[in-house]
Amino acid sequence: MGATGRLIALGLLLAAAGCDPVADERSDPTAAANANAQAGTEAVPLAGNLMQKWSRSCVLCHVDGNGGAPRLGNAEEWQPRLAKGSDILLQHTLEGFNNMPPLGYCMSCERDDFVALIDFMAGAR
Length: 125
Hints:
With 125 residues, this protein is mainly α. The chain has helices at 3-16, 29-39, 48-62, 75-83, 86-95, 111-122. It is globular, with a radius of gyration of 14 Å.
């Protein structure tokens, strides 16, 4: 895991413990996602509840590409996965695939949430 990944992981651990990590793009995945959206890396940031779900689960791997995860808004990394079709991608998300655990750590996500989160990370929203 790179330095940025360690900072994000530390920020998430501190936030989960009730601490207030330094609010910059390296330790605040929501700010990073919104900055990427404004820069055109992906189309539209997630609203409220979904952004919270994303920052508690997906961010752990999809910001730095940990475990081979396709990075947020990186079309080149998402293209081969999207080419398999949305049903397969959703199945891999729900059941787990390679290094991705079942449900991608989001125990509170519904099927529609996963579809929206995948679209967001792949840059389709």
